[in-house]
């Protein structure tokens, strides 16, 4: 039996297409969810994994599979449905899972044969059994997997084409930020895999560089951090020779032993969500954790960098507290904190988040010709109506922010710091130049996006509220139906 597992692309996200820019290999990692699914699949299945970010394959020329499995983030959904249609017209059943199908099961069910929601570990065997018996169900509801159910991923199925391998050490996030669907998908309970399994999986990864895809490697409590230290000690003992990058909360800077162990275990960089340069912004998105005890972000970043680690900082534009000038404020904050890389997102209401519920109730989701419009939900485009910023304002402020942070003068200044501090100067320089290039590509993507909206001007939401606070009748409902990180 042949199983084909597909990670679809989004043509608007040129920044993750390796063939369009050789530097993009530093921004792409393996679709770990599909490799985990392959690890759950019995050995009698002949498995092929396709990642369309490496290039579009000739599906017609490939041996016809008996079953197709597709995963998708929200921005990948239109392409996922397109690929599904091609196989279904050839009589091949298609199963779809992942975070988008989990949050929009009714939509997905209209376009594939079977939808798998949630984490697949507890139900994938049943899906395959039912398929072989000709009794596939329209939907299978997964639950939060027990950590011992998580198999070793099949890293051998995508042997080349990547700079980074990928691994997951824990699932779940207790922070419950309003814009994030992780807590809805993986839950708020922090579940750490068995340390011996994680070490073994590191050994299976062919790449010398690895991305740890956990939403937060170290967690938020003393117990979480103690568990992280045990994992790091095990990686040190294994002496694998791997260099890796992880996502973390800013509290990683508060524990010198934790930082030392991370470096000794092979960590070369951390990705931290700062989200907003203001306390009001952090409160709006429910991330007050960042600013507990009046934290000095500059000092925290410096403590991390003194260990030789590169720090990437992520910010969100378009919060209700954001006004014109926010682009420069974010760039100024990022430069003041001293981060080595800046990742700028546009506030995007994703299905399954509290932000989606709020914006839908307020008729602020304006790019809503679904499912086609999901392709614009890349986290970089203004798909909603923002309180103080128009669509054009968002573009302008994004451009200002990127121009300031990724100016050649700023990159040269940071490069000197990388050299002096011995903080991976080549990797940091390549990453900065790649981000600078993709900031220019964003302008073309935005123009295409704006043209697709038929020239409609999306004003800021405050301009559509009467003095009495009642929304203007001109604000129509989005028409989107109520829609109930990646493991499939």
Structure report:
This protein has 488 residues and is α/β, with parallel strands linked by helices. It folds into 2 domains: 2-141, 3-Layer(aba) Sandwich (Rossmann fold); 149-442, tm_1862 like domain (pyruvate-formate lyase- activating enzyme), CATH 3.80.30. 35% of the residues lie in helices and 14% in strands. The chain contains 16 helices and 14 strands. A 6-stranded parallel beta sheet has the order 2-1-3-4-5-6, sandwiched between helices. A 6-stranded parallel beta sheet has the order 7-10-11-12-13-14. A two-stranded antiparallel ribbon has the order 8-9. Helix 12 (326-337) links the parallel strand 13 and strand 14. It is globular.
What's the short story on this structure?
With 488 residues, this protein is of the alpha/beta class. Helices cover 35% and strands 14% of the residues. The protein folds into 2 domains: 2-141, 3-Layer(aba) Sandwich (Rossmann fold); 149-442, pyruvate-formate lyase- activating enzyme.
